[in-house]
Structure formats: C-alpha cells, structure tokens
Amino acid sequence: MHKTIIIGTGPAGLTAAIYLARANMEPLVIEGWQPGGQLTTTTEIENFPGFPEGILGSELMSNMRKQAQRFGATFRTGSVKSVDFSERPYTLDVEGIGELKAESVIISTGASAKYLGIPGEQDNIGRGVSTCATCDGFFFRGKKLIIVGGGDSAMEEAGFLTRFASEVTVVNRREELRASKIMQDRARSNEKISWNLNRTPLEVVAGEQGLQGMKVRNNETGEEELIESDGVFIAIGHTPNTGFLNGQITTDEQGYIIVKPGTSETNIPGVFACGDVQDNKYRQAITAAGSGCMAALDCERYLEEAHSLQTAVKA
Fold this sequence. Notes:
This protein is α/β, with parallel strands linked by helices and 315 residues long. Helices cover 25% and strands 30% of the residues. It has 6 helices and 19 strands. Strands 1, 2, 5, 6, 7, 8 and 19 form a 7-stranded mixed sheet that branches. The chain has a 5-stranded parallel sheet with strand order 10-17-11-12-13, with helices on one face. A hairpin with a 2-residue loop joins strand 7 (90-95) and strand 8. It is elongated. Keywords: Disulfide bond, FAD, Flavoprotein, NADP, Oxidoreductase, Redox-active center. InterPro entries: FAD/NAD-bd_sf, FAD/NAD-binding_dom, Ferredoxin-NADP_redctase_2, Pyr_nucl-diS_OxRdtase_2_AS, Thioredox_Rdtase. Belongs to the class-II pyridine nucleotide-disulfide oxidoreductase family. It catalyses: [thioredoxin]-dithiol + NADP(+) = [thioredoxin]-disulfide + NADPH + H(+).
C-alpha cells in the first residue's frame, strides 16, 4: 500500500514528487519507457527560470529526479496498462511491475506530439525538427523555416516563428486550412509567411551540414520538389496520454483530463492530474512544473483530511 503513486516523470510529475517527498509522503513514481518525458528529446532549454546560460532538457530532468530521490521519492520503471478507481485503495496494473495499490494517485502522463511518420523526421528531432515553436524558435534567428499544419495552432506558431526567421513556409496537405478565419487572415497578412498548400510531405532531408529542407509532392500534378529550409516545425496536434484510464476520468473531446478550475482535482476523489495531460493550451515545462506543485499540495491535503476522518471514525 502506497500513500501516493505518481504516474509520469516529466516536469509535472517530478515536481509533485519533490513536494510530496519533502512532506514525508514517500511517493512512488512510475516512470515509463521514456523517463523524463518530452523534454529529454529537446536540446538546450533557455526559458526555464534559474538557468541564465540554458540547460539541456535531459540534464534538467535528471536534476529534478535526483532532487526528488534526495527527499525520499522512490522510482520504478514500468508502463501503466490499466487502473481501477471504482474503490479505494485504488489499483494500478503496471507492465513490468505488477499490481500496485495506493490511497491517492497523481496522473502526469503528458501529451505526445503527433508526427508525420515520414523518413528523416525522427532522426532529426532536436537537430532541426521540432514540435514546439515557443521552445525552439529562438535558435533559428535569420533562418528559413517550414511549419506543417493547417489549424489554429499552426497559424499561431507560424506567426510566432516570424519573430526570428527570415521566412516561414506553411505546408499543408489540403488546399483549404482548418484554422479559423481570423487566424488565417492574420497569417496571410504577415509578409514573412509564404504558402505551399495541397502538398504532401514526403521526407525531411538532411546533409552533413544540417537540415536541407523537406521533400513534398504536389497533390494536383504529382510532381515532387524540395522546399529548402533550415528547420521544420510539426504543428498537427497532440494526443494526451490517457488511453490507459479507460474512461474512468472525465476528459474533454480531445482526451485531455478535466480538472476542477483552480485545482488539480479530477472527478475521482484522491485522483489528481497535472502537466500536459490536462493542459491543451500552454504546454510549457514551467507551467507543467507549477501544476505539479498544485497536485502535490492538493494530494497532501486530501490525505491529511482522509486520515483525520479515519481517526475520528475509530474514536
């Protein structure tokens, strides 16, 4: 029996672990097959407070993990296959570990960026391919960039990238964009944004000197061409990692966990959510860490109240 189990080891889960461990709650942290989350796939992080010279994503996550361990958090590696929140204590079935029980659970499993699945894409993540304009746009000052996508997020990120890039080319599979009219109008009025619509991405092309661009196919003519670029940003959405919950937690239409406003509380008492798994707007390391702090404090308060209630009943 564990007081608290934290699922996930991104900035949200590790922050929750630090706070709970310092409160002598002895949290058990389940880290999946990619410990540290998405930040371990990035290179240098320059917008996390406290690191004026920047820090590698993997190093930041390693430091946070060591900090949680220092105060008594325990880590085990495995993938949560299913959960049972129908009765307390709650039950987790974890691949590689087995069945675990806990008085409370913090879900910080994050959201996975959707990728195109084309050659050269995965090989160049962190080497010119990115899914976060806010995180990596700064590194492409004065460069030519491609952004793939046709929704509001793609238009917003294209506009953001023009603050740094000399030119941003929007590539979309269809001639029509899914973005709202106001977002399309804003993007089309930006002189730095050019358009390559009705094009299917085929390959991210890189050479010895770095990224060369993206090969695309004209869907109307069938002709293939190379769009030269120093960087490729993928903006086709994210998928929250909530499949293992099997509908036991209330989510929105996209699958993001819905929490009570101003808290980390889900619809199940004693089950909390933090980080990108409940945030489809900001998706930043620092906001994830902040929500991890909230989850830890909410969880600690819940456990104290539950303990007080049990003591009163026994008396």
